[in-house]
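Table S2 (text version). Query chain:
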Amino acid sequence: MDKKISDSPYSTDIAYLSDLKNYIGKELGLSKWTKITQKQINSFANITDDHQWIHIDEERCKKQSPYKKPIAHGFLVLSLASKFCYETYKLHNTRIGLNYGLDKVRFINAVKVNSFIRGRVSLISCEEINNGVKYKMNIIFELKNQIKPACIAEFIAIAYN
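Corresponding structure-token output:
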């Protein structure tokens, strides 16, 4: 993959779906910073019925967690993949785009409450399919003021022209 192009948010405009192949191995963009709040974490816990203390119990975290603060659920972090992709590249002249799934997800660093996170997106591959393209992107979920990212995932999408 190409090295980091920018430390400021940016997006790549791709005029035609057929041009996507020209970006294989290249960075497509960098999203804006997004703050992970306790309200988001609690809402995610309520929706998923996943109320582990490490996510929602601030007092217990102060005493027992190695992070001393609640941390975000891994899938809450991954739920930002679509948002980060939307902010980092635009495929024009497409009829419809679909999120197809995730591949090779690796959680590397905990996302503490009130952390800022952003997505750095690059294109790994693309293959032509009937009336469209199936493509895979690498998303690095960067944490502000941290060397290690929160997560690295491969995000698969399909776009039709």
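Notes on Table S2: The chain has a mean pLDDT of 91. Helices lie at 38-48, 53-56, 58-64, 74-78, 81-88.
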